[in-house]
Amino acid sequence: MATTEEVKKLAALARIKLADAELEKFTSEFDAILAYVDTISTVEAPQGEALRRGQALRNVMREDGAPHAQGAFTEKLAAQFSAREGDALSVKQIIQHG
What we know:
Layout: H1 4-13, H2 20-41, H3 49-53, H4 74-78, E1 84-85, E2 88-89
Antiparallel strand pairs: 1-2
């Protein structure tokens, strides 16, 4: 069972700020996540050479060639932009560098 101190350390490593009120909730959720991962780890799946011999890996590729003329859909797509600069979509900055 995870302790609140372990959850605090994990939150610090992940750069997540947790209020003391949230600590108990996240501690119990952390235990549930670990239990789920433990369940998944018991699943037997083919590995290595077994995958290469079986039907598990399959690539479906189209033949080389231009599917349509270059730029044929540019204006149609750009017309749907809420804000644009030329043919580029203009968006509000959501990530701050600092």
